[in-house]
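Researcher: Next sequence.
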Amino acid sequence: MTDEIRTEADAVAELTNAAERHRTEQVVPDTAHILSYVTNEDEHREFDSLERFLPNPRRDRGTTTVLDVDSFNKLSDGALQLDAVAYADRSPSRITAVLNDKGWRDHRIVVALQLSREWNHWAAADGKLLNQIQFAEHIEDGLAAITSPPAADLMEVVQNFQTKRKVEFQSGHRTQSGEVQFQYKEEATATAGGKGGHIEVPEHFTLRIPVYERGDVYDLTARLRFRIGQDGLLLGYKLDRAGDVKDAAFDAEVAKLAVIKSVFGPAPDTIREL
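Model: Next structure:
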């Protein structure tokens, strides 16, 4: 009889302990509906939020990416908090506005500025030497961005290089008029000797291009470079202070931000719970 009573008592105790181990209780930090589960005997707890069942999140969070400052200003209108901070990072041309900078830092708008097609075109050949045909085609493709010298003059240069394919360039020198004159000799044929001539190319030309898509335009000077060797005439250009122009364009975009505290540097990570 005693053994039966003990057995029943033990069974009741085990059921009670099992229920205790798997009990569910509600935890309410800051009005959040979170359930706490005791999952094993060492009091280890697992938490499950019921926020996902609400029609709307309890607070704003997440990251939205736009491609220009104008879009940022439209999107952030009325959404900026007092602790919002914009982190401007030059190297990736990225502005990250952390709207809850003194909170969890997980509500953000990122402005991922895109370099313009014009900038990419001229930066692609900056400091490189091309053969005369490649150089002529490159100038022709970007002709709309050149403000000085006149487009008609440059088209004449382009056409000269495109037609003078079977010539040997012998020398190049800078003239007092601000041009570089290239002397050439045409290939001799069976009926006639090779004729000589020259092509004049502006020593420098001025570009007016936007650094970023839908951004302000800037003047940029490209200075002619050349080399005559075994590979014939190679031509190219070097952009004056391109890095400074790009930095100035980025700073100007940052200045266009709606009223928000701005600092230069990469954005901090989101805050992680302890």
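Model: The longest helix spans residues 2-21. The chain has six helices and 16 strands.
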